[in-house]
Write a structure and sequence with these properties.
This protein has no helices and twelve strands. By secondary structure, the chain is an all-beta fold. The strands form three sheets. A seven-stranded antiparallel β-sheet has the order 1-4-5-6-12-7-10, with no helix packed on it.
């Protein structure tokens, strides 16, 4: 398996969930209409594992965002960290840890520990995931939400089923003295 923080051009596995994305806009007379209704086209395989899929739903470069004019898809590429004054909305399909493979020495690949300059809202939509911090862990199930405030963390799927999670990452100031990784 490759670097879990890297997206590839590999096609997602057929059994992964295609997320339906609906985007609204306004006609010139102000009437609200649906501009797009389809499976999100921005699907990226993570770490070379076709079961580990990032669905980049939408990205806002700065706040306040403009809703004027026709929507232009701003999330056509994978962004690990949100823009400093913006946000990223994504849905991750996280496979069981057992599918992550092994490193060059034959050891199981561990979930990716990382820290970003962001405040993240992480919601479990389906399945179960373990949120891992430096010295603590907590199991999250469908309906649970974590507000992740720039702390180093990893997501570990210790079940035999895919976990589907919604993330909204909002750009934030980095914590002084703590590396972004």
């Amino acid at each position: 398996m490759g670097d879990l923080a890297k997206a590839s051009n590999m096609a997602p596995a057929p059994e992964t969930t295609g997320i339906r994305r609906i985007i609204t806009t306004h006609r010139p007379d102000g009437e609200a209409v649906i501009a797009e209704d389809r499976i999100c086209p921005n699907r990226f395989v993570m770490g070379g594992n076709p079961l580990f899929v990032d669905n980049e739903i939408w990205k806002i470069e700065q706040q306040p965002a403009s809703n004027a004019g026709d929507p232009v898809d701003p999330a056509t590429s994978f962004t690990f960290v949100p823009p400093a004054g913006g946000n990223v909305c994504r849905i991750l399909e996280i496979p069981p840890d057992t599918t992550l493979g092994t490193d060059g020495e034959g050891n199981p690949v561990k979930p990716l520990f990382h820290r970003t300059a962001s405040t993240d809202y992480a919601v479990v939509l389906r399945g179960e995931i373990t949120a891992v911090l430096d010295k603590q862990e907590t199991v999250m199930r469908a309906g649970d939400i974590m507000v992740q405030r720039g702390s180093i963390h990893a997501w570990s799927n210790r079940t035999n089923e895919q976990c589907l999670m919604l993330f909204v990452l909002c750009g934030a100031e980095p914590i002084e003295g703590l590396p972004i990784m």
